[in-house]
């Protein structure tokens, strides 16, 4: 069924949650009207401040996100939350258990919360999340919080979709090397040591400070990522996180960094969409008899995968 | 400098580690001779049994891999190890700390160990690892152990490159929901609860058994993934893991599952290489002035990312 896109977008602008939900479903599901929706949203975007929150399981991301929502709502801001769940690539379902913690905001018309499962194929997540952010932006959210489990490559990519990236840690979550292995330590503009009422919080903050070289001198005007200690479950330190975010935002705006980041993000987004489109064409090409036939020849040792890929690409681009 | 590929391949077949290292570097580095190397390797592949080992940081993957190497060496098998480190996408370097545990095998000519860092771009890892596996296969390894940190999408993809996937757990590594979130639980053909001398090992095994529905009845002939308890640091239970692997291999061979898996893997590999090639063309096309110009128009709200991607793709395929 075709949707009246201009009407839906107008309703989303008025803050109607069902219209927002419908738009996100349209962009998530690669609807035939996807392009129409994206074209309608384009002139309405750019107003939202996008904050990424990432960290290993157990650091208290959902609780921290919820506390930030409360803080921003007190300041009168409209808030969108995109919670990205790395579900199993095989079952396709998201584990929404800890979304329940967000339920306190469920009846607040100034908050829109959406969970999104990662897809089972490469690039699936990177493809859908930026579009959902655009919907929330166009719907008039002042702040969009994107919460991800920051352990894999695709999660790091999502974090890079944000204007400001917050990396959350908690005391006793494993030693520094293990954290660094997860590949998320270097992406933070703001670091939060949550559960700071537990033993080891100061040690975690110190170790982080050391690993990030925060004690070293920097060029004047460079951003020095702050480390904020919080107990999100009791809203302790959350105002300090908001203050750090606003400071980072102001710093980016002053120096043109925000426009640069957004341009880089848009370029990456375009590239991802283009690659996804080409990938789909390969799938169509394969059909998949052709790809299967190539695969069998590879298993038999008659063909190498590069020669097989050349055949596929030639069929696509008419080389 | 051009390399004498046939000579290098012949030396690798003789088990010369420097030739193997050189070949992996050639396929990793996207050398101009990459296609020549892959073509030369193709008829020599298919002999190796590829075992993927994955699990969260701290479960003892390196120790388990090392213990498996010892067990296979005792049985006279030549073993290749590919250790995939999810390094930071920004620094590009792999953290090789725990590779040191493998040093006991460093002087054994029947063992080839290679570390590989994940790349900073989508698909980078998925692209390089299968080629390195092909080199080890062609070099005459009877068994190739691929060790990855199984937390992100790309690690799951690597695990899917294996003939048999081993998922490692350890007691007290977080509750079941958190483990399931990591998205690795469902990919195992064999499960190992390592550090089984610690409290909670039985509970972890029981919980796993429950989550996987292993107690439920299955169709006759279906594979029922075993759960093996080990203390890899003392080599306890390692022979049982090898026995479980061999049993799975025999089961796959009997039922034609091995050939099916390998064909699916090859098809996926071809697709990934083709997409990477197309992606590179986009990068070349952009050059990157064109992509940057599109990105600026998106940030200004003049264009949406899909329309921009259409422009890029049209330039590529001549639509």
What structural class do you assign from the helix and strand content of chain A? alpha/beta
CATH class designation of the largest domain in chain A = Alpha Beta
Largest interface: A-B, 91 and 91 residues
Examine the secondary-structure arrangement and name the CATH architecture of the largest domain in chain A. 3-Layer(aba) Sandwich
Number of domains of chain A: 3
Largest sheet of chain A: 7 strands, parallel
The global form of chain A is globular
Gyration radius of chain A (Cα, Å) is: 22 Å
InterPro entries (chains A, B): GTPase/Isobutyryl-CoA_mutase (IPR052040), GTPase_ArgK (IPR005129), P-loop_NTPase (IPR027417)
Organism (chains A, B): Streptomyces pacificus
GO molecular function (chains A, B): GTP binding; GTPase activity
Keywords (chains A, B): Chaperone, GTP-binding, Hydrolase, Nucleotide-binding
Provide an overview of this structure.
The structure is a homodimer of 319-residue chains. Chain A has twelve helices and seven strands. With 319 residues, chain A is of the alpha/beta class. Chain A has three domains: 1-44, no CATH class; 45-255, Rossmann fold; 272-317, no CATH class. A seven-stranded parallel sheet of chain A has the order 3-2-4-1-5-6-7, with helices on both faces. In chain A, helix 4 crosses helix 9. Chain A starts with a helix and ends with a helix. At the A-B interface, helix 3, helix 5, helix 6, helix 7 and helix 10 of A face helix 3, helix 5, helix 6, helix 7 and helix 10 of B. Chains A, B: This is Methylmalonyl Co-A mutase-associated GTPase MeaB. Chains A, B: It comes from Streptomyces pacificus. Chains A, B: GO terms for molecular function: GTP binding; GTPase activity.
């Amino acid at each position: 069924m075709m949707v009246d896109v201009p009407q839906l977008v107008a309703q989303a602008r008025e803050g109607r949650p069902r219209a927002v939900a419908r738009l996100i479903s349209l962009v998530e599901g690669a609807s035939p009207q996807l392009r129409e929706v994206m074209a309608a949203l384009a002139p309405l975007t750019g107003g939202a401040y996008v904050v990424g929150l990432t960290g290993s399981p157990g650091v208290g991301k959902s609780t921290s996100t919820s506390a930030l929502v409360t803080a921003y709502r007190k300041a009168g801001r409209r808030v969108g939350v995109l919670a990205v769940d790395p579900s199993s690539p095989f079952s396709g379902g998201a584990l929404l258990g800890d979304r329940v913690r967000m339920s306190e905001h469920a009846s607040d018309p100034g908050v829109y919360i959406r969970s999104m499962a990662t897809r089972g194929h490469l690039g699936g997540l990177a493809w859908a999340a930026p579009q959902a952010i655009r919907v929330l932006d166009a719907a008039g959210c002042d702040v969009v919080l994107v919460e991800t489990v920051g352990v894999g490559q695709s999660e790091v990519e999502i974090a890079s979709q944000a204007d400001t990236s917050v990396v959350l840690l908690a005391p006793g979550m494993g030693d520094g090397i293990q954290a660094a292995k997860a590949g998320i330590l270097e992406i933070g503009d703001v670091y939060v040591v949550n559960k700071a009422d537990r033993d080891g919080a100061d040690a975690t903050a110190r170790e982080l400070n050391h690993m990030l070289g925060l004690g070293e001198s920097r060029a004047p005007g460079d951003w020095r990522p702050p480390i904020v200690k919080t107990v999100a479950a009791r809203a302790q330190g959350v105002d300090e996180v908001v203050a750090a975010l606003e400071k980072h935002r102001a710093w980016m705006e002053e120096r043109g960094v925000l426009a640069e980041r957004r341009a880089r993000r848009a370029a990456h987004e375009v590239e991802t969409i283009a690659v996804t489109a080409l990938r789909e064409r390969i799938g169509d090409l394969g059909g998949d008899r052709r790809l299967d036939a190539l695969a069998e020849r590879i298993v038999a040792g008659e063909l190498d995968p590069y020669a097989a890929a050349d055949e596929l690409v030639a069929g696509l681009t008419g080389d």
